[in-house]
Amino acid sequence: MEKPAKKSQDKVIITCAVTGSVHTPTMSPYLPLTPDEIARQSIEAAEAGAAIIHLHARDPEDGRPTADPKIFDQFVPRIKAETDAVINITTGGSTRMTLEERLAYPLQAKPEMCSLNMGSMNFSIHPAARRISEWRHDWEKPYIEGMEDLIFRNTFRDIKHILQVLGEGCGTRFEFECYDVGHLYNLAHFVDEGLIQGPLFIQTIYGVLGGLGPDPENLVLMRTTADRLFGRENYRFSILGAGRHQMPLLTMGAVMGGNVRVGLEDSLYLGKGQLAASCAEQVRKIRRILEELSLEIATPDEARALLGLKGRERVAF
């Protein structure tokens, strides 16, 4: 497996996941929904220090998640034109989308990076519906409550297909989303099969119902397991803490040598009881914490070098 570039090896890559497909408009007035809002928050996050912008799309009429390439096309080229950030397109979409729908825009855009969930799993925030009495849109309540009986599907065949058509076919590299220890072993399987070449970018995720809990000890578990499976020199470790666990787990993970991911997809809050007014607020906060810890922040081009990306000139948008 190819070793990561040593230049800027100790710098921290900040990823910002701008809107996602989990939170709904009622949960925060600041959640970006329209193409203009998604573009604007992405650009502000990049200006604040995010090297990678992770993107989903929303129906601008009512904010529901969509995989429509025509909607992606209304904000992705604009973000590229106004920033030098790495653009990372979801292949996860939502639990209600087919694999074909989830891949429609990535295959069209051929981005430098895509996210890739490393297994099928229960994935839910259905208890959140109990705390909301009035909803802005009719679709929201059944969408959130319905997660209790849905599975996010990514079978071994699904993952293999994504690796072949996007990885081999488009030169796209991946943010490997690992919600549990078993997902690391799934990733190791595909490395052993020769379908993935390093350096790996492993996004470990904590605090989602259905995945690994937000206990700090779990960061050590995932880090040491990845070390055994891949060798520390062959991968970049990153941390995603859901909801209120965002900043504490990211800080701990960064001290352990990890990279970090923020954004309104992962948490709607900036602090206890305080909604984040933008993704950029979260980027600025984690950047301030990292710099107080004497850690340096990677630029987009430094992130490209560390992750072995093909470069912004080789995308199709």
Automatic annotation (TrEMBL):
Pfam families: BKACE. The keyword Zinc applies. Its cofactor is Zn(2+). This is 3-keto-5-aminohexanoate cleavage protein. It comes from Azohydromonas lata. InterPro entries: Aldolase_TIM, BKACE. It comes from the Bacteria. PANTHER family: 3-KETO-5-AMINOHEXANOATE CLEAVAGE ENZYME, 3-KETO-5-AMINOHEXANOATE CLEAVAGE ENZYME-RELATED. Keywords: Metal-binding, Transferase, Zinc. The keyword Metal-binding applies. Gene3D superfamilies: Aldolase class I (3.20.20.70).
